[in-house]
Amino acid sequence: MGWFWADTAPSTHVAPHRMPRGNAEPPPACPMHKKGVPPVVAEKKTPQGACPYVPPENASAGTSSSTPPPKTGLLARLNPLNNMFSELSNERADTQSQSLPLDRERSTIPKGDGSLWEYPSPQQMYNAMLRKGYTDTDITAVESMVGVHNFLNEGAWAEIMGWERRFSRGLSEGYQICKKGEAYANFTLGTAEDPFDTTTWTDKDIPPPKLLRFTGRPTEPTPKSQILQWLGYVMPDKFGTAPPFDRHDWFVERCNEKGCQEIRYVIDYYEGDAEPTGEPVFFLDVRPAVDGPTSVAERLIRSGTDVWWRASGGIARELNKLEEEKRKQEQEWSAKSQQYN
């Protein structure tokens, strides 16, 4: 899903590490330091500050210039924030049969620098798919694909916001929010009307979370999805479902009074049965990755408290309390009215 996000094409390329310039001594690993075999005498003088050794098969190319050729490998062209191409062309493809919109939609998901992530334009989406080898892509469906792509990413971020609203301050605070089930937690957090709200953040003492980077891992199924598949073989009526069609890891910055830390979230994307109208249905399984005891505790608290609250009759107990309070209020109002009469 988010694997198509890309930044605006930079004007210049910056090397990941600065290369020394000037009259630097050759590094110790340079074969020039090794004695024994006399160095090969080249016709052209070796550039100053460069290692004079040149492998025989690349001798002609190595002695022509001291400036290394620009990196053109795959890793050099990837954005470290999402492991996707840093430059997604917004130009019409040569084999394109019709024009596509060039406008990019801004998401509600903040970056680490405070700006918002932007989704690709339909033209960028189409170019990216061609670049990945999907040359048979139906160009008439690209705009719909962009809409689904954006919708799913917003849904994933809404799920992450739900986790962060509960546990941004720690496990103890998270338990107090979760102890009466999901419905009560959403009411406490102010998201009862829309649990998938991506922007509401009521805690004024700490900043909301930010998406630092993400990566797609569709060929690496999560342990939970594999367990569900195994259970589906044993109990197909209860757990039978198709495997997720995609998997993402999102790295989120969580800040509180103790400082900021990076939390990894795992997202499994499932496709459900289409609606009678033909509209597709998707399910997202979003949870903190099991990278330590804290994330394990968060998952146990949120799921365990909700199950226990419903199984132990917590909802019925709360309704009885409300009815009892209502009955007391009615009795008080009745007593006051008799006094006035």
Main sheet record: 4 strands, antiparallel
Strand elements, count: 8
Rg, rounded, reads 29 Å
Helix-strand makeup class: alpha+beta
> What average pLDDT do the residues reach?
79
Low-confidence stretches: 6-37, 41-65, 70-78
Our estimate of the beta-strand percent is: 15-25%
Mass-distribution shape: elongated
Strand order of the largest sheet: 5-6-7-8
> Percent range for helical residues?
25-40%
Query: How many angstroms does the end-to-end distance come to?
Result: 69 Å
Helix run count: 9
Task: State the order of secondary-structure elements, H for helix, E for strand.
Answer: HEEEEHHHHEHHEEEHH
Keywords: Coiled coil, Heme, Iron, Lyase, Membrane, Metal-binding, Mitochondrion, Mitochondrion inner membrane
Function: Lyase that catalyzes the covalent linking of the heme group to the cytochrome C apoprotein to produce the mature functional cytochrome.
GO molecular function: holocytochrome-c synthase activity; metal ion binding
Region (Disordered): 1-77, 90-120
Essential attributes:
single chain; 341 residues; four-stranded antiparallel sheet; two-stranded antiparallel sheet; 9 helices; 35% helix; 15% strand; elongated; metal-binding; Holocyt_c/c1_synthase; EC 4.4.1.17; mitochondrion inner membrane
Structural description of this entry:
- Residues 312-339 form a coiled coil.
- Lyase that catalyzes the covalent linking of the heme group to the cytochrome C apoprotein to produce the mature functional cytochrome.
- Pfam families: Cyto_heme_lyase (PF01265).
- It catalyses: holo-[cytochrome c] = apo-[cytochrome c] + heme b.
- Keywords: Coiled coil, Heme, Iron, Lyase, Membrane, Metal-binding, Mitochondrion, Mitochondrion inner membrane.
- With 341 residues, this protein is of the alpha+beta class.
- It has a domain at 84-313.
- Helix content is 35%, strand content 15%.
- It has helices at residues 59-62, 122-131, 142-167, 171-178, 181-189, 223-234, 236-239, 293-311, 314-340; strands at residues 78-79, 84-85, 106-110, 116-118, 210-216, 246-256, 259-272, 281-288.
- Strand 6 (246-256) and strand 7 (259-272) form a beta hairpin.
- Helix 2 crosses helix 3 and helix 4 packs parallel to helix 8.
- The protein is elongated.
